[in-house]
Batch of 2 targets.
Target 1
Amino acid sequence: MQTTIKGLLQKNGSKIVFLVMDGLGGLPYKGIIERSAGGTEGPFAGPDGRFIGKTELEAAHAPNLDKLAVLSACGLHIPVGPGITPGSGPGHLGLFGYDPLKWEIGRGVLEAVGLGLEVKKTDIAIRCNYATIENNVITDRRAGRPSTAKMLKVTERLQKEIPEIDGVKFIYGPGMEHRFAVIMRFPEALSPEAAMVNDSDPQMEGKAPLPLIPKHPKAERTAAITRKFIGRVEELLKDSHPENYILVRGFSTHPRLPSFLEAYGLRALAIASYPMYRGLARLIGMEAPDFEGSFEEEIEYMKANWNDYDFFFIHFKKTDSYGEDGNFAEKVKKIEEADKALPCILALKPEVLVITGDHSTPAVMKGHSWHPVPAMLHAPYVLGEVTEGFSERQCLKGELGIIPSVALMPLALANAGRLKKFGS
Amino acid sequence: MQTTIKGLLQKNGSKIVFLVMDGLGGLPYKGIIERSAGGTEGPFAGPDGRFIGKTELEAAHAPNLDKLAVLSACGLHIPVGPGITPGSGPGHLGLFGYDPLKWEIGRGVLEAVGLGLEVKKTDIAIRCNYATIENNVITDRRAGRPSTAKMLKVTERLQKEIPEIDGVKFIYGPGMEHRFAVIMRFPEALSPEAAMVNDSDPQMEGKAPLPLIPKHPKAERTAAITRKFIGRVEELLKDSHPENYILVRGFSTHPRLPSFLEAYGLRALAIASYPMYRGLARLIGMEAPDFEGSFEEEIEYMKANWNDYDFFFIHFKKTDSYGEDGNFAEKVKKIEEADKALPCILALKPEVLVITGDHSTPAVMKGHSWHPVPAMLHAPYVLGEVTEGFSERQCLKGELGIIPSVALMPLALANAGRLKKFGS
């Protein structure tokens, strides 16, 4: 479908805004307990009786969202496929029109991006664990699960001591506990074969680390440099304990997704306070400055950059965070916060405003879920007056129907007047 | 899907009617202005206050359509894909069950068909422009945009003077202004490779016409004969000005779509007053006599031929024409006209009657659009009593859901009792 779309693109001065309220979709509070065939009671927070039977969106007092939904095309979208719970990566890829089943992002790249590192076409990204080794046997694959703070210092030391090997730059992304990511930045662009190196992690204690074997001639240099890297780290940490070794996994190159500019002719700006979302946005060629601030400040930032871009991805994180915590009441509050800021977005008069999530995170499930995500597309040429507000149940009645997430971008482009007619 | 369907076909005496109201789908009148975030006012016709907030179908007084919709399976269909605005060719292909993304029709064939020429499997169709050439440089690619009437005479002269070259017949289709189409009818059926010849149009003035180069051995004869053709035309027009040359583009053969009879076992009759729709129908093996007449006369013609066919495609053009003009009130009237004639169709008691459009042409957009098209399928075995009338918003509630256009033919066949069980 992206190929067809590309052939139909035309330019105009229109602006498209995607407001992504992370993990927006939800499920009814408590209702799940009373209705559950198994009758199991979930231990989730929020004692307020007025929520019973309502989803987070239904429970929220969100007059701006509700009013806008009436004037918009509404529906629900499925990020990956029926029953499939997406991670944030596939969720956002789908929203932006990249089929998450087609465009798999390597584990190393995903980890690096998630830690806020930028991955370029010259890079190989790997996931690393601090581990404990004795007589060439891994005795602890996680080096005793050390504290994040302690390991941050170790990783900073690696960055200082091993910034480069044989002309390849090493860029470190400290992670949680024993985890970190490494970018090996080569002088030239790499093909995917350069990452065809196995994990060194034997996946169980009591074994030697696996030797790194290139599976393709183009991966020989990658394997050789990584061996040197592991040796240098081992030398550097030889007096440390328990973190005296590293295991490497998930060698991967830039996924070479077509950029937003290539795919849609759109200059795109991503405004997100969390590094992972910026990293994902950069993988598809969006500008994604290291922005930190409140949602209101995100909108201000969009306003300040309004003339320089065609597409704005503005990310609202907290709906997902409280969903993951199982905190129904706080997720409701966050929806209400976003609702209050909505007029500031509308004041910019984008031709197309899409409001949705990258996936559902029902507070009652304390995690991402497979449920279709409510969405509204506000633009001049919609039917409208089909739904009475913005919620999962209202969106079910909507004119968009239940669609794959990848359908949203073509619809946004069409509504922005950016697609020519197909055939005569 | 067509392969699966083909394996399930069974014959019976049932009749299927597709009433295609061209560009049927619409959008609310004026409401669009009040709702638009951008606030831009569209310059469309129709001052009637009672239309505000209603689509063309909602504004029409169409009691027969509304009553029938209650007794039918209703829904909306998407011709090509989300956000994609179809031309009439892809729109009709989809309706008839041919995936428009799979079955692309060559530009030359589409032009020829649009001008009412029949394209056979022995043919190569090309688009031609009258142009001005001086010292082998194209000085005007459109020969000064001459009048259609003037060029009609020139094209008639070509038909008379160059009816054949080396055993290949030349059939001319006069077009608008400088445009015309040519069918080269060879003595034998051609494979698609025979059309692998580049355009001679250099796409800009001040350049020489491009030499015709066959891209496949099977295209050598095509290129040679076309070179002779261009030479003959140049000789004939050498004293004319500014139209003293022709540029050729879009070499293409019959798209070799499976015929309606092959695909569905249906003897099909197309009744359409516009040449383009007859041409499209002929491409899929429908009989399409050169019929001209009112909608009532189209229905009379169908009645007169009722016993000789299994499938009837009856085309109602004016809904699209007034939509394209932005004339909301007249599009409403045309729907009301069709509504009045509906009982004459019902009196024939077809087993299946599908009423829909090939795409949407909202008057407020003055053109084709990507919006799903309302449809009703009237047949004995439907749920019914799901919708309260025939409109975009009513169809959203319908039992068909929002489906790709290519789903309509299998549904029609099933409802006509023409499909066996799949598996045991």
Note: The interface with chain B takes residues 1, 4-5, 8, 71, 346, 349-351, 353, 378-386, 397-399, 401, 403, 407, 409-415, 419-424 of chain A (CB under 8 Å).
Target 2
Amino acid sequence: MISMDILKELCQKSNSKSILLVLDGLGGISRIPDGKTELETASTPNLDSLACNSITGMVDPISKGITPGSGPAHLSLFGYDPIKYRIGRGVLSALGIGFDFQPSDVAARINFATVAEDGRITDRRAGRLDTEKNGQLCSILNRIKIPGVEIFVRTVKEHRAIVVFRGNGLSGDLTDSDPQRAGVFPLPVRSHNDTREAKETARLANRFIEECRGILSKEEVANMVLLRGFAQFCPLPSMHEIYKLNAAAIANYPMYRGVARLVGMTVLDCGESIEDELDTLAREFQNYDFFYLHIKKTDSYGEDGDFDQKVHIIEKVDKHIPQIMNLDPDVIVVTGDHSTPAVLTAHSWHPNPVLLYSRWCRPDKVRAFSESECINGGLGHINALDIMPLILANALRLNKFGA
Amino acid sequence: MISMDILKELCQKSNSKSILLVLDGLGGISRIPDGKTELETASTPNLDSLACNSITGMVDPISKGITPGSGPAHLSLFGYDPIKYRIGRGVLSALGIGFDFQPSDVAARINFATVAEDGRITDRRAGRLDTEKNGQLCSILNRIKIPGVEIFVRTVKEHRAIVVFRGNGLSGDLTDSDPQRAGVFPLPVRSHNDTREAKETARLANRFIEECRGILSKEEVANMVLLRGFAQFCPLPSMHEIYKLNAAAIANYPMYRGVARLVGMTVLDCGESIEDELDTLAREFQNYDFFYLHIKKTDSYGEDGDFDQKVHIIEKVDKHIPQIMNLDPDVIVVTGDHSTPAVLTAHSWHPNPVLLYSRWCRPDKVRAFSESECINGGLGHINALDIMPLILANALRLNKFGA
């Protein structure tokens, strides 16, 4: 893969418009030996027809055999090496609700939880707390003051919230207080390393938890907080800075909006449905030159083990392909961030099929958009980090390397 | 390729069992243009049938165009970067006979040789000395004392033995005394670099050779030693430490037993034949969760230039595939460590075909296990270092990378 530094040297502006359509968890495996994956089961005449005019291939999100979380998988698609840029869940969650980070802030995810009188956890999600009640409690916890640090508590949804600590000499290298099961006590937050920063931040986090416990003690259900996914925010170079792209994200789930914001995309308001997302794309198409368009439900149904519903979502997306192509993008890439085979009910390591269409793509002989067909595609087997350079090249946005 | 550090973070225990079946020097080339390789000539109904249910591909042992020795080729298959971990032949040979190294020991291979009265070599192998005689001579040479260093001389087989120097400030960066041909004088051992350590170890080695020459002067045949493959021992992290695998090796040649020991495998007692090896596999199958099963003779016949016998060995292995599959391993990989085309009578740079079978492998359309078919396999063209992550993923032993 080419380094970001070199890519930055080569990028130039142009009027071309590119779309990166990500079907989350697209890749699958078959239910029976010799059977078909979700994508192969789905009727996808429009994607297949697009594949005929495209160059195709297979994409490894990270490396052979490695199953990625959504954060690293997306960073990789956006051209940011996920091994170099390791973004913790706390930061991703906070970015997802649009939290305005400053460098070296430390974030963690909060679960409102229920503990019994003896302090043992009885429900790690406080009965999937009402979102409004969550908002009220966050407003109160947001007033907690601890000398030497600023604290921000923000509501997310149901039992989920986030906390951000801002101050000098903080570290995100901390263990969770959430033991990940009921029937036991919350754990003290501990530092993963011996630095003064990590020890001091662990002390702060534990003090914060104590303050929360005091405030919440009069609550019947949400009478405790559990913290996990501590991470320090570290700003990334923006897609504008690296690629000279005016990039927009159309994604309706907080975490994906968060990753997009992290790489400097404008995160557009869009509704909940695929139709809403496509309306947003059409409405904003003249205003940006790169669109990240995210479809979440392929992954959700994969994680639920619902093969048929995943097939259905793929078919639904397929029906909208002509609508997208009518916008006449110069480049469109369709792929997944990782595989989520319904039979595994989880993310997996399997590569995703990819198609890239542009006037200049050099179409291959692949005639269908599927795992088994794209194996023989003209792109070969690539890493997700190769996708942005290929988009930029096909968008005629990359200068020659060397004379 | 993913780094070993990250892989170590991601590995978890499980009850799954994996087999890595290595046909040494498997890959070949045809005798006539447009003809068939050894593997393509062999009748392999069982491997072909397994390929139908597997994902396949091509594997480069080190890098395009690079012909590996057996040591680096195996390290790579075991997931250890052979560029980073350079193990000299002397160390490998000593490991092969179970020598118990201490860190920074320096080892070299010994050939018992015959020299004429003027000192010129007449036979580099002392008439392929009797193994028992070899043992007697090694016992005598083992008594050589040189101040400041401990010396261990151990018999291997026929004309082959090893010597290990133990002490402070030694170096393995030395040239051979073996000129690799008869009719000339043995060479003095020289240091490859200007360090005090290398110069001092060269001096020790030359003094050792002088002592040997004195002791052996009354011998008619084995009246000299030739040293080659100097190398310093450097312990590797074990497969248990990195992969959390309880790994066993079934290999009947010393060097492969040595490499397996180097990465912390338990080296099982097994007989000389393929049948013996498979009996060992069956007997020990419940006791380990990873098996490295090594077939040597594909390589031996390749090096002999015996195309037909190499074909025969492949067919023999094929007949045993059902026996292996009856053990019901969760993952099986079949490949070579490098190619040894009979027409080249030597190791070569050609990639090897690979098949990986597991419940989760996402089978491709390849219907035969061969070089020309596996080119179109779903794994694509991978590096041998990718094999362990793929085995671990398919064995459901890898956690997700990032959130």
Note: The first strand of chain B starts at residue 18 and ends at 23.
